Amino acid sequence: MLLLVYTASAQNNQVFQVADSIHPHERTFQFEYKATVKDIPVDAKQVDVWIPVPHDSPFQRITDLQIESPYPYHTNTAQYGNQVLHISLNRPQQSTLTVTVRFNTVRIEHLQVRLREESASAVKGERDPDMARWLQPDRLVPIDGKDQAVGSRGS
After folding, report:
1. Half-sphere exposure of 119 (CA within 13 A, CB side)
2. For the CA atoms of 4, 9, 10, 11, what is the dihedral angle to 10 degrees?
3. Helix (H) or strand (E) run with residue 149 in it
4. pLDDT digits (tens, 9 = 90+) for 7-50
5. Global confidence as pTM
């Protein structure tokens, strides 16, 4: 069983400056999150754990990244540029595994300046090269209405 405790103990050290339509706001956060795998069977032969790791992008800067793990790990760049931490255990001795990730981030407001222009509907910007993928069906996204039925029952 995987228990992901995302204690976004984010300290919001935000400093807002006078807003204008060209300069984005920035907010600073401190994050800590823990991923815990519980009840690892005594006879488990292999346990693999993947945990997302934040990375720089045009809209965020990551600093002071710290990873606490009782086992060796490595980070990889996954599909679409996401960073992932991977731990692979052969015949683990403990029944629980906890990994803690801490980091600071500066989030930068993503302004769509072109949408504020009078002729926004006519403005054509660069198209996301993965747009066709984002518009495709995905087996992980429910579209059969079951999730809506569960939600309306209040469970």
Report:
1. 4
2. -170
3. helix 146-153
4. 444 444 444 444 455 788 999 999 999 999 999 999 999 999 99
5. 0.67
